[in-house]
Amino acid sequence: MEKKKRWKITLNAPVTLGFTGLCFITMILNYVTGGLSNRLLFMTYHSSLMSGFTYIRFFTHVLGHSGWQHYIGNMSYILLLGPLLEEKYGSKQMAEVICVTAFVTGMINYILFWNVALCGASGVVFAFILLASFTNFKEGELPLTVILVAVIFIGEQVYEGIFIQDNISNMAHILGGLVGTITGYVLNKKKQ
């Protein structure tokens, strides 16, 4: 008699799962502290350069979210794209993409938008979206999917940034998309 194989849960994308888990813990912490933890650690804004927290927040702001809808929206994309990207590029590269995106969006927000607090993984989401569009990249070719994704996602952010006043950081989305585009090009060029 043949044994039935048992299904088991595997840890297929450690960086993606770890990042999602850290964001979840941050959401719980923000809820328990009544928003204090986000203001202290998980939101970047123009604060004194003499404070060590300013530099920490350049990276940790991507872990904080303004509410459950914000968190669920971002994590849906992260969990959808992250495992595919981790399989293609490796966990180390994906951790670097997250860190670079966090730093770039945090620094630009600090320098250019003095009165805007920034939190959330939307920049990372856009980096993942644009990076994913490079999966079939070959030297000397520009996949139509890259062009369409850039036009649709980045074009929408430019439009909304100019014509719609809301609490969404279109700058973080655009910069995240640029980080994903540059990373996708560089990583795929190295593999050629």
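[next item in queue]
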Amino acid sequence: MGLFNILFGQKGPASEVLSPQTIFSEISRIISGGDEIVAGKMSDCLSDIKKYYSDNIIRYHERGFDDNDDNDTLYWIGMVDILESCGYVCEEDYKEKKSDFLHSFGELKEVKGNSLFFDENNLKEKDSVPDWCRELDKEWKEKGWCTAALDIDSDSYLIFPCRLSDFDTLVDYAMRVGHSIDRAVNV
């Protein structure tokens, strides 16, 4: 924990001090809509990061991370992989084809579970992931949803549907642990 956080504490919505592990748990809970499978996997990750890392070493190495990275980075990458493997986040290449984007993003649990359908005719083939997300944001605004992205310092996009009411909290929590969540149109 940095000096600023030691002196001033990390305050949550109810002004309580939150540990980094609690923040990662909360981020995953919000993104997954409280999925118990995600919570269980996050508990494993957060309770013993070295064991979790060694059990998932291939995924970490595929993303360019190793056990020399700090724990918060290992937690972050573990969380991203858990959310992706459970169907709450999809990874899109910066050169993604529209058909692949439509398939992977359309299959996310929160898209399906919240009837976040979209008119694929509004998405132009020649556009990119941020452009397509801009169109989805327009369609979903009335429903109270947007597209958001987790940053892992990669040229791919890790995107997910996000309730507008949760977006600022996710941004704040990610920032507190040295990472970033932003609107998908801004990545």
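[queue empty]
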